[in-house]
Amino acid sequence: MVLGKGLYIKKYQVYSPKLPLSFDGFRFIFISDLHGKKYGKNNTKLLEMIYKAKPDCILIGGDMVVGGISRRCKEGYRPLSKETVNTSIDLIAELTPKYTVIHALGNHEEKLHPALWDEYKSKLKELNVKLLDNEKFSFHRENDDCIDIYGLSLGKENYPKFRRNKLSLDSVEEKLGAKGGNYTILMAHSPLYFETYSRWKADLTLSGHLHGGIMRLPLVGGVIGPDFFIFPKYSGGFYTENGSNMIVSCGAGTHTINLRVFNPPEITLVELKFGEKLHGN
Ligand SMILES: [Fe+2]
To answer: Which intervals hold domain Calcineurin-like phosphoesterase (predicted)?
Structure first.
């Protein structure tokens, strides 16, 4: 149930003097935490919003599906998991003929039943999706200009409930290596480790996971995170630390607690700009 307005596009412009000039004005849609939700038959409303935004590519920050293992179901997973995999694939199949689609993993992809994960991966491969499981994709433009896009798979141990975890810089470097000299976008599903991402020197981190904190209060932001801590620091919006920026999507869907109060589902449109000014709206 959504109290307040429905799905909308949240827009940001992000400035950096490190951005190659040929990427000035580069636009991408960032989708996170859809969890198999449909907006219109076959997600036509969501697709129309994307087409209208005229992005240069699509970035997916994970949790497109609902994961989990079920001993009660003979396949080993709930039918809901399979449905969300199908919904995600159907949506992505509409996008790949028009756009480069780059997909990082959320905690729900990481906890999909192995058979379902293999099925999801092979369908993404057929669709020529760049699946970044601790990998890098370099997006090239003319004059050999490029920006680097990384997908960090945090591992199940970094999504604890009822307690907070620390993520070391070493563990990020072990998975991704040291950051290179290009302008770098890091897709890392949980925003809770922003300090570490900033020390890795990500220019722009894209996260989700907290679903905006289920309910949003003016001046406060999100109320509760999936780890059951109240008033999470990075529940949704634009953040800066150590010269590094982060955009946290409030997410496009829900699961388990199907409630969003004054916390509309969102997809995100980001425009990269060459220069010093930094702001979100
Ligand atoms: Fe999620």
So the answer is: 26-212
